[in-house]
Amino acid sequence: MITAFARALLLAPLLLVGEARATQSPPDSVVYHLDPSSRLVVKTGKAGLLGFVGHTHVIRARAVSGELVYHPGSPTSSLRLTVPTDSLEVLTPPDTAEIRKVTAAMRTEVLHVDQYPEMTFAADSIGARDGKVDLQLALTMEGITRTVPVTAQVTIGADTIKATGTFTAKQTDFGITPYSGGPAGTVKVADRVTFCFDLVAVRDGADAPGAQPRAAARDATTVPGCVDTSTAPPEGARRPM
């Protein structure tokens, strides 16, 4: 006959398993990956007494990857984006020779893409929801990470999450020396630059939203906050550099 004590010993492992299962939280996160239609651009300003002789430049990140881990109703969602620095391409002003020169200088003299091949953007504890969302973004450039405040306008759909917004950062905070060149160094780029984003993330397992139009509506020079007033050549007309 099994004593009460022996029965308790036999049932103990089953009770422990049951308690463990009861205390485990059900899956509460959804993973979204960045869609190729997303746009991330940087707009530089002019500086110095002779800044008027230079140009502003709109720079597009042509290869952006990342994911959003979304926890509905909880301020614990997280975001990770990665940009290969050699994918950054100057789009304006619409002068092919200057675009090539400025792009080459940006990659070799400013961003040092051979030493720092990636730029990253990360945020934890995001209260992702429809409407305005404030977050602290950890931006890493040239191996240095700084936190910058960002306000995004977020729209959550059945299978997509869209976010638009802008934020600024000073190049010198990341050990970057703003570009200075041209005749007698008259072309100077301002220290503070503006990042503008128009991102679309698609839920894992869902169909992509389809091919986005490549016309002006998706042109990197039209991203709100980084709109360039000069006339850039059509993206399809430019050759990779």
Description:
The C terminus is likely disordered. The chain is 15% helix and 39% strand. The protein has 241 residues and is mainly beta. A hairpin with a 3-residue loop joins strand 9 and strand 10. It has a single domain, classed as Beta Barrel (Lipocalin), CATH 2.40.128.110. It has an eight-stranded antiparallel beta barrel. The chain contains two helices and 13 strands; from the N terminus they run H-E-E-E-E-E-E-H-E-E-E-E-E-E-E.
Task: Briefly say what this structure is.
This protein is mainly beta and 241 residues long. The chain has helices at residues 4-23, 96-110, and strands at residues 30-34, 39-44, 57-61, 65-70, 77-84, 88-90, 118-126, 131-141, 144-156, 160-170, 180-181, 187-188, 192-203.
Name the features:
241 residues, mainly beta, Lipocalin, 8-stranded antiparallel β-barrel, two-stranded antiparallel ribbon, 13 strands, disordered C terminus
Shape: globular
Query: Helix/strand/pairing class, anyone?
Result: mainly beta
Q: What's the story with the biggest beta sheet?
A: 8 strands, antiparallel, barrel
Total beta strand runs: 13
Q: Radius of gyration, rounded?
A: 24 Å
What is the average of the pLDDT values? 79
- Tell me the fraction of residues in β-strands, as a range: 35-45%
Low-confidence stretches: 8-12, 14-26, 48-53, 213-217, 236-241
Supply the number of helical segments.
2
C-alpha termini separation: 84 Å
Per CATH, what is the topology?
A: Lipocalin
User: For the record, what is the CATH homologous superfamily label?
Assistant: Lipid/polyisoprenoid-binding, YceI-like
The CATH class, by name, is Mainly Beta
Helix-residue proportion? 10-25%
Strand order of the largest sheet: 1-4-5-7-8-9-10-13
